[in-house]
Each structure stands twice: as structure tokens, then as C-alpha cells.
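Pinned message: reference record for D-alanyl-D-alanine endopeptidase
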Amino acid sequence: MHMLGMSILLSMSSASFAELVVDASKGTGQAALNWSSEDANQLLNGDVSSSAEEVSPQGSTKITTSVRSSNGVAQHSAPKTVQVLNNSNYSNQPSVNARAALVMDGQTGEVLFSKNSNTAYPIASITKLMTAVVISDSRLNMSEKITLQQSDFSCSGCKSSSSTLRAGDSMNRAEALLVALMKSENPAASALARTFPGGRAAFISAMNAKARALGMNSTHYMESTGLHPGNVSSARDLGILVNTASQYGLIRQFSTTPSYDFNLGYRVLKSNNTNALVRNGGWNINISKTGYINEAGRCVVMHTTLNNRPAVVVLLGADSSAARTNDATRLMSWVSNLPKRI
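Predicted structure (C-alpha cells):
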């Protein structure tokens, strides 16, 4: 469980495991996530036992981070691919503003809600979820320092975007992945691809190869940030990706961090999650990623637990951030009231 307003200070240490210590008594506690190379490998490989305690508002609690699947079992290696079963026959389905949508049972692959779910659309920063999967699969040193270069702030054919990061900013690979997932910082996602073995071309090749391996047949990636409108996918394909990403403890933790203070040495960059549903803390959200460029509209993907059912929610092309949030809230409320599986 994440606490609203929680900030995490990422630093290097020789601790034997990664742990998150939260002072919950003040409501906006300070947290410290201590990393070593071994720690990062444990999170990526699923070697840490699933024994996390939840934050209690009554006092300080220690949370031991772990790799959690949708059923709470610690795992990561060889994540299962769930076949999407297009057999939804539920009545009284809510209307959604988004041009495409999918709600899928995260365990069985059963489609609970579908709207234009097989049509490929631009996906904007939802792209960064595949960026995170490729980084996690690569087993690169998460404590290695990455310094942002001017080339990380633009790419051929990409849309322009603003950023609170600057060329010359330095952070470790874990922080770069965190700021790319929770705050959707494009230069960080670009730098992750640039520093990949073989550079950006090899990284994009790995993204598309992973999509093919997962059966994401309507998906194609041009670059790692989502600023290129040629990054396209269908809601069905993204359902597969989200369910796969939910097997990675690192992605679960980083994509649902409500807030984080990045210590860049000469300044502190206070950052909040781009998903209001994560920031507000009212839903049990395990994976989250938002996205927006003009061609894509407002997008969001989530893995959540609703009425004890792991569920994947995908929304592409909503008219506004408010419409996107309203769509997601209606769909999750509707699934929460569906009869439980026998």
C-alpha cells in the first residue's frame, strides 16, 4: 500500500536487501530506498521473499520490497503470458469517452469490457512500460550513473515536450527508470535506451522483439519515450503487456510511487505520479502508466485488484485527463460489483 505524499530518497548502500522505511505517523512520511547492485538484481530476479508489511497510519512501519505477482506470490522469471479471451457477455456495461478500452481478468485473460480493442492507435508514453520491461530483462547494473545528454531531449519525428530535467543531470539507472515511469520524463526514457548495450537501435529492436514474443501483433515501437506517433498498439496488446509487466516487482513499485524527491546534487526535483488515481490512493493499483500526445489523446493502463480479482484496465484516446480518470473510475467501480467467480 502506498501512502499519499510519500517521498523516496534513492541512495546507494551495501545493505543486504532493498528496504523501504516509512515514517507513517506524520502522514507525509520520509522514505529511504537503499540500493546495492545485489539489491537490484534481487528485485529483478525475484529472489526477495514476499513478506511486505503494509503501511499503518498509526505508526512507523518497515516495508521490505519484493517481487509480487497478482496473487501475491514472489516471482519474476519467465512471466506468464495470458491469452486474451474475447468472450465478454456482461450486461449493464458503462459507457466510456476513450476511443478504445479493455478490461481483462488478469488471471484468466477473460475480457470483461471491450471497445475497439483490436485497433492499433498511437500510445504516447504508455510506450515507457515496454521500455521498463526491456530494462528489467537486460539485468543491467541499476546503480550505474547515467548523465543526461542534449540528444536525450529530442528525437527525429518526435513531438516536442517539456521537461523538468536538464542536460547534465546525473542519476543512477534505477532513478532514471523511476522518473520515466512515475513522472513520465521523456529524457530519462531516452537515456535508458541510449545507454543500453548497442545503443538506441538495439534497444528499439529489443522492444519490438519483446512485443512479438508476447503476441502483441498490432504493436510497433519507433523509440523509447512515446513522443513518436509511430509508436502504436491496440488495447488488446497493451492488456498483454500490462499483465506481463505486473510480474516485475521493480515496475510495480516504481510505476505506483505517488511522489519522489530526486536529489540531483545541486537541486532537488520534487516529482508526483502522473496518475491521479495513484496519487489519491483510493484504489489498489499495482501497475500504472499514463500517456499523452495530440495523436494519442489521453491514455492510461493499469493493473489493479478489484473485488479480489486481478484486473487490467486499458484506455486509449480519451478527450481529457478528467475524462480519462472518469472512464477508469466507472470501469473499476463496475468490475468491483461484478459477481465473484465460483
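Pinned by admin. Summary line: DSSP finds nine helices and 15 strands in the chain.
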